[in-house]
Design brief:
The complex is a heterodimer of chains A (165) and B (348). In chain A, 26% of the residues lie in helices and 15% in strands. With 165 residues, chain A is α+β, with helices and mostly antiparallel strands. Chain A has a domain at 54-148: Alpha-Beta Plaits, CATH 3.30.70.3270. In chain A, strand 2 and strand 3 (94-102) form a beta hairpin. Chain A is elongated, with a radius of gyration of 26 Å. Chain B has one domain (68-344). Helices cover 65% and strands 2% of the residues of chain B. Chain B has helices at residues 5-40, 56-66, 77-93, 122-143, 147-178, 183-188, 203-216, 228-231, 241-266, 282-308, 316-345; strands spanning 103-106, 109-112. Classes of the chains: A alpha+beta (165), B mainly alpha (348). The interface between A and B is medium-sized, with 14 and 12 residues.
Chain lengths: 165, 348
Amino acid sequence: MKVTRPELSWWERTYFPAILKGMKLTFSHIFRKRVTLQYPEERWTLPPGYRGQPVLLTGLDGHEKCTSCKLCQFICPPEAIRIVAGETELAKEKFPAEFDIDMGLCIFCGYCQEVCPVEAIWLKDAYELADYDRTNLIFDKEKLLALGRKPPYLPGREKPLEEGR
Amino acid sequence: MNAYWPIVVPALVKIVVILGIVLTGVAYTTLAERKVSAWMQDRRGPNRVGPFGLLQPVADGMKFFFKEDITPREAYRPLYLLAPFLTLFPALITFAVIPFGTQISVGGQTYPLIIAPGMDVGVIFLLAVSSIGVYGILLAGWSSGNKYSLMGGLRSASQVISYELGIALAVMSVVLWTGSFDFRRIVEDQAGWGHFWFVGPQFLAFIVFTVAVFAETNRLPFDLPEGESELVAGYHTEYSGLRFAMFFMGEYANMITASAFVVLLFLGGWNLPFVNYAWFGPLWGGLLSAVVFFAKVAVLLFVFIWVRWTLPRFRYDQLMSLGWKRLFPLALLNLVLISTLLVLRGHP
């Protein structure tokens, strides 16, 4: 490809016009609005459908919706879900005696939510999940149910995550 | 012994005050650099340590202090350990000959605001001492036993020969104009009715000197010895902890020296147009002149930072050709012009 280079005048070849133009630009940016988000104090408004912490949901009868069909366990790409099935007197007859999600493995793909026939597992929008100890990252059934009972944060709310977690 | 006290005590006081101002200045120039660069990129900059991040330099200093001081196995130890001092100390020594105000009269005694008042070759002293700092960079680059450091040192060496000529010739034309190597005489020549700051009559020298001074202080667009995108960190790649801090402080102290140099030679020193410090009395006039001087230095420091965050780095050969083919002939031309003017005017 043939590139035509502009013929520079003597003044332009001293670099000064370009330098001054650049300095004018950088100076004007000093007075612009800052784009930094002051993270712990300010937070993003999360988009609807944000995939964060997976939680177990409770039905209207007060029991977990999960019927321990293990579809989520089978679909989970990093195999982060472990379910031990148990029998129950309830109409659903089968329930998870144990239900662990290893949050150290979870990749927040949302397949478990997609595949669940009874809408028992759901990815809410909590995202501050770091811990100093990996054993703390294995969330058991009680913890997941408790997280599921807390209301999700609705987009546009002030100080969302205080309530969301 | 008693006869020495009137000389020694004021000198010591001035040394302590100036070192305090310069080292605080260095610390807060680093903060200013981070703040201004952030603003120019629409960021906020450090704002967590203290109000508006004002204690950030303290936190940085603490971090440097507690970091491990590493000497690489391949390094030549004596020079490796010496090099940071060679960069920092000349940068601080230069303040001995920089006058930072008129004078203060207290209790019938007059104290000129300069650490070494009798020095009438201050310009030469400053040029000579500030050049020593480059040896620190050279030796650091060579003694680190690291190819990137060596490249940085080499670049510094070749950079020196291309800008020092420009600096010296630009300074010479100012010296010819005033007929003195004394900073006070040079500043006094820029004061009063019918006299101008030398940016006006010596504009070419001002341009050459300012551009060359950016190279002398290793600032962008001429920070080839560091060149972090090409040479990791250049000459101070292997340094850590307090020794790295010394290079860092040396760079910023050099910036302050260079700014003071430009202010004294071209921007009227502590003079302001239409202001006579005698109006404010012997004490306040002197203090005010010092404040004005440091304010001008601060403005120039801002320009240093401003340029750094605007311009990209020059290529190696571009710096050479700028130094030899542009700055050197320009400075020479200016020298000839000034000399001709002085001869026509019948200057002694």
